Amino acid sequence: MAIELKELGLLSVDEQESILKDLSKSYHPIEVNKKKFMIPSEVNELIDELFIEVTILRVKLKEKSIGEEKN
User: Which long-range contacts (CB under 8 A, 24 or more apart) does 53-62 make?
Assistant: First the structure.
């Protein structure tokens, strides 16, 4: 971590504050292709919402295709 902190000293105060603010955010683990990543909570919430939407659309699509004839 000391290397990163030395590099922060080369940045402007505004840039340092921005980076430190981002580091203090809440992060959540996610696994993709057996690799783990830490993502911001906002991104995690977006993924959860998209998953719910896709699931709802999948159910609606299955309900619509029941009883319909294929052309």
Answer: none
Q: 29 by DSSP, 3-state: which?
A: strand
- C-beta of residue 15 within 8 angstroms of C-beta of residue 9: no
Task: Report residue 70 as tokens.
Answer: 């294929």
28: tokens are: 């959540």
- Global confidence as pTM: 0.56
**Letter for the amino acid at 15?**
E
Q: What pLDDT is stored for residue 66 in this prediction?
A: 63
- Quick one: which of 11, 32, 33 has its CA closest to 22? 11
